[in-house]
Amino acid sequence: MGLRERKKLKTRLAIRKETYRLIAEQGYEGTTVEQIAEAAEVSPSTVFRYFPVKEDIVLTDEYDPVLEKQLRARPIDEDPLDSIREVIGQGLAAAVAEEYDELVQRTRLMVGVPAVRARMTETMATTSGVLVRALADRADRPHDDLVVRAFVAAVLGTLREAMLYWAEGGHREDLTELTDRALLTLRSGLRR
Fold first, then answer.
1. Membrane-spanning regions, if any (predicted)?
2. What single string gives the DSSP state of each residue in 148-179?
3. Pick from 104, 153, 108: which is nearest to 131 by CA?
4. CA distance 192 to 190
5. Are the CB atoms for 68 and 134 separated by under 8 Å?
6. Which of 34, 41, 52, 179 is most enclosed, with most CB atoms within 10 A?
7. Per CATH, domain 3-51 is 3.40.630.30
8. H-helix or E-strand containing 138?
9. Is the torsion defined by CA of 77, 79, 84, 89 positive or negative?
10. How far apart are CA 140 and CA 158, in angstroms?
11. 41: exposed, middle or buried (C-beta count within 10 Å: 0-12, 13-18, 19+)?
């Protein structure tokens, strides 16, 4: 990363950190973009330049490029579901180890704030595009292939439901194991 990219990342992380702190203190609805900007020592316009809506501060992260790189590095002959499980498992394990409190707060907001949950569907479109391109390339299919899109939609829907389930259950289960178990249902389906 160049200096400019590092500065942008530092600003994004500062905004996100202060957002989570303020939300913990005064709730989601009670936290304004102006308060976030002041706490992060940036202008409100800077906050909106990085995050078009307040919900994006909670939902967006810097994992998509990493996810794509790791997925493209998986063995080409590996089953796509196994590749996805491995990459998502590694990413979740790292997030749990390094950003557990933020992850808990993020998933609580996904469950408790309708605007965050609604925006979550929109922001997943970006991740979907990343995964579709990577998997389509691995399968030598076009980037607009319906089968690849349907597979990625199933994976992301499963990931979303696993995270919501984790939050609704009070964050007691192991998120990585829970997500892997949920992803495996894409292979086995519903059985008695």
1. none
2. HHHHHHHHHHHHHHHHHHHHHTTT-S-HHHHH
3. 153
4. 7
5. yes
6. 179
7. no
8. helix 114-138
9. negative
10. 25
11. exposed
* Whole-angstrom distance, CA of residue 45 vs CA of residue 1: 24
What angle, 0 to 180 degrees and rounded to 10, lies between the N-to-C axes of helices 3-26 and 33-40?
Answer: 130
User: What pTM did the predictor assign?
Assistant: 0.87
Closest CA to 84 of 158, 172, 161, 29: 158
In whole angstroms, how far apart are CA 161 and each of 55, 59, 69, 89, 176? 19, 15, 24, 15, 13
- Can you give 52-97 as a three-state secondary structure string? CCHHHHHHCCCCHHHHHHHHHHCCCCCCHHHHHHHHHHHHHHHHHH
Q: What's 57-188's CATH class?
A: mainly alpha
Distance of alpha carbon 68 from its chain centroid, rounded?
13
The C-alpha angle with vertex 170 and arms to 164 and 176, in degrees rounded to 5, equals: 60
Which residue shows structure tokens 């076009």? 142
Specify the pLDDT at position 48: 95
What are 16-31's pLDDT values in tens digits? 999 999 999 999 999 9
* pLDDT profile of the chain (192 residues), mean per 10: 85 93 93 96 95 91 86 95 95 92 92 92 89 95 96 96 96 96 91 74
Spell out the domain ranges in the chain. Answer: 3-51, 57-188
